[in-house]
Write a structure and sequence with these properties.
Layout (H helix, E strand, L loop, with lengths): L1 E8 L5 H10 L6 E5 L2 H7 L11 H6 L5 E8 L2 H15 L8 E8 L21
Antiparallel strand pairs: 1-3, 1-4, 2-3
Length: about 130
Amino acid sequence: MAYLVAFVLDNPNHSARILESWEQAGAAGITILESTGIGRLRKLGMSDDLPLMPSLRDLMQSKETHHRTFFSVVSNETQVDSLVAATESVVGDLNRAHTGVLFVVPLLRAYGIRDKGSEAGSQSPQIE
């Protein structure tokens, strides 16, 4: 079974180290998004010009501090454990405050996933 590993990093200064540690742990592909949570908006104070339901564009144009959210699909629980360990090697124990939030979602089907090191033109097996 495949798994989606998602990590919302609290301190974006650790982004490069998270990417490097996930690659070393075997993540074949990593997607990164800039993100902001409602808790951070409330903590920093929402500006008057930010709408009640802000769009992604509104958030990106604001001067608020953002998180980074990392996504990777892996094919087994051993790889999940490797990414969790790699993450904690950078930010410390995830149960501590201000490290981030990591969660894992089982995927019923995943297409287009290639193992690290596979050739771009080769057929990738469907992960189920």
